[in-house]
Amino acid sequence: MQCQICGSKSSNLSKIWPHPSDITLLNLNDWKIDLENILDGSSTHTPGCVVCETIFSLLIDTKENHSDLQTFRHFTCRTAFLRAHFDPFSQNYVLILNALTASLTDFFPIMINPPSNTLRNDKYESRNKIPVSSDSPEAFGLAKRLLDTCRREHLKCASCQMDYVPSRVLHLDHEGVRLVLRSEVKEGCDYVALSYCWGNSQSLITTKYTLESHRTGIPLEALPKVFKDAVNVTRRLSMCYLWIDALCIIQGDQEDWESESGQMENVYGNAELVLAAAISPNPHDGFLRDRAYLPTWRYASIKMNTRIPRIKFTYRLLARHKGEPLDSRAWAFQERFLARRYLAYRDGCMMWECREGIYCECGFFAEQLHATATNLDYMLSSRPQMGPAGLWRADVVGVYSKMALTFPSDKFVALSAVASRFQSITGDTYLAGLWKEDLANQLCWRTSKRSYPESFYAPSWSWASVDGKFGIGTHRAESVLSNILDASVVPSTINRFGPVSDGFVRVRGKPILAELHIGNSYVNATQINPEPDHANGNIRQNCSIVIPDVECQDMDCSIDVPLIADGFIFDPAAGKPVDSVRRIFHTERDVYSIRPGAYSVWLFPLIRYRFEFYALILGPSLRRPDLSDHFERVGLLMMRNPPNWYEEAQYETREFTLV
Description:
alpha+beta, 17 helices, 8-stranded mixed β-sheet, 3 domains, 21% helix
């Protein structure tokens, strides 16, 4: 039978909860009933089925008991929909009512436990209360079940890249903790890798002076609380090897650091489990603790008819996860990205990720959580249309740029494991944070905040040459306007995905000599950063590009770093050098400033996407002042002009080298 109100199907609409495939897929707005008047109490109706009656009761109870959701019901009537979400770990379904919030920008999920005193389909799972403490037997039992289920049933998670053991690892035996070498690890033994925040200092590290004593043994009471908790979890999961960077890499030894930091892809990619102390801001603040906040289930009931007792069910609002200290750390990004299995201890719950699914102790594993998953294998399988290059632009460097680094010089090495994994998938050439095969697209990055890098980290064409947040377009060019002739970087360590000391890109195209106007607003210019910013030792002013004989209809002129009026570029038409601008060095920030005016720059077109035209803004390079065809990037121009205006223009073909 099919319910005439919501469309759900069941052999007994009054008693039996439908199979997941028979639940209505209609928005509540499409139900055949005056829902708003029913919820207001101004209208009555004949009950349809247990599904729609449960939703009616839930919405009425939500309205009466949640004062912070006064506008919620109004939008629910138009945009809410019920879904049965498959849980890959229990192999059952969980009911979620998703409703658009009043801001119309996000969904507000409500989890429903189907009625307990009616005939319920056994395909549904009831979620119970979350344990009060993450240090409880119930919490450890769940972690063990998740790991065992994944090991037993998830084929994608079973395979690792290689039979790998780190150079050093902590052995956890009945006597305590001691540091052992790879050759001392029993064959076939698995290990856990810890992901955590270093904080401002480490009280316990392995150095050349403590190496031998740590090989003899480390007293459990000497471990910081996070390390001690990690030992506890590893043992409770029936494993006896644990990798912690502070203890397994010789700190202060540059040679060992360069060697071991280049192994992060193997360390985290081959670990049986990556254990994340997400809630802990430093090693001394443990993650096994009482939960500060526990969501509560609300009880409600429905009455189908006089012959059937009231049917009871429970529900609760699913709050989104708040950001934890580990979520913002750049080093932790690749540790999560590469993990086969990832177990994070958060403020109110544990969260599990693997290559086949996501499970949160609180029950929030709807599509919104899946869309933000950072596991590489999961991303590649769930969004194949983007391809590795699209994922790199959108979900790797775009996210990574927002992460915090204590030392900016780590920006390459903290991403090197992810780059190594991408290279193994694509076979492409890695160039200081960009990929050669997609270089025209990836050169189109733009900063959201200008800053002075304190040292040389990368060539000017790499996003790593600036500090702060930046973005790269997720779309792929409809047409490429230049040719990449050659590109190369010079690694400064043995890690070929790590820091660089130099690099270049040789390009051929039809560059445009234009004027960069810096000062007040100009005709057809998009105003950016109109307010003075003296904190950086310079003034961010409105800027625009003026191209001779071209009417720029809509322009976004993004400058990478503060500039100074210094240097020259050669004007072929005038046959002489003309004043230009260049990047300011960190050491010059208190000495030089730029005056409002017009300065000559080269525009080097890269790509076109629909009506959008992207070009690098180039100025002279003090690093190679002897070569007139060598330039540094100072910004990115995006214009929306009629199609083919550039292709039809008569600009001369030239070759430039970007440094």
